Amino acid sequence: MNLTLVTDATTDAEPLQVSDITTFLVIDQSNATADLQGMISAARLEAERENGRELAQKQWKLVLDRFPTNTHFWATFGASVAGPYYGERPYNAYAPGDGRIQLLDPLVSVEAFTYKKSDGTTVTLTENTDYLVDVDKHPGELCPPYGMQWPTDTLWPASPIQITFTAGFAPEQVPATIKNAMKLLISEWYENRLPFSGVRFIAELPFSVRSAFQNDKLWKF
Question: What is the CA radius of gyration of the chain?
Answer without folding.
Answer: 23
